UniProtKB/TrEMBL annotation:
It holds the Pfam family Oxidored_molyb. It comes from the Bacteria. Residues 69-216 form the Oxidoreductase molybdopterin-binding domain. This is Molybdopterin-dependent oxidoreductase. It comes from Nocardioides anomalus.
Amino acid sequence: MSGAEEPGAPVGRRLVLGLAGLGVAGVLGGATASRKLSEWLAPAELRDPTGLLATLPLGPAFRFYSVTGSVDEVSAADYRLSVGGLVAVPATYGFDDLRALPQTSFSSDFHCVTGWTVPGVAWTGVPLRELLDLARPAAQATAVRFRSFDGTYTESLPLPVARHERTVVALGMLGGAVSHAHGGPVRMYVDGQYGYKSTKWLSAVELTEDEVPGYWEHRGYAVDGTVRA
Ligand SMILES: Nc1nc2c(c(=O)[nH]1)N[C@H]1C(S)=C(S)[C@@H](COP(=O)(O)O)O[C@H]1N2
Ligand SMILES: [Mo]
């Protein structure tokens, strides 16, 4: 993963901000200020405070985000997803197990809360509710918690959002496999919610009694990540 690193991010974490399809060093060479367009800035500052970002020829491009410096690549063959917590039937799925479940495909605009959007991103994967139905959540479960094999990132959704037909355990993206940089081989995609709710490098899904604030929510983001027009 290429990227400009933001040193000195809060609580000792570095944000790696990669710019898709660019010679990052060249484009950002003199634009140090644009590196400060980090996820943890207050919302008022997120709108390109320096104006530098708007001058970059990014177009509607993805930025590749990881709150950890690097993430070890996991092959589809070695991939495992555990489903557990407050469920009657905990389970572990390999990539092929997930592929054998009902799939959904759709395209939708991807919104990062920092202000960038990628229109019409194609997704394919297992609706999370298929896995939840198989797991049989306990009556007291009201939320789902997500973990990443980056070892750090967590997120959560209330059960109704988790059961939405466009909340998917994504096995495909942009017409191909989910790349490592985009959180493959398997990541979440939660349509209608800002990107931070969609955990990359998904490793576990856990039913919980209450919604547990995730990585970015401890750093100021709203627990409700609903995209506001
Ligand atoms: N594990 C993990 N998942 C993550 C993140 C991250 O840093 N680590 N960043 C989130 C944010 S803020 C966004 S906008 C999207 C970015 O997805 P992309 O890197 O595929 O563009 O992933 C989300 N999921
Ligand atoms: Mo984001």
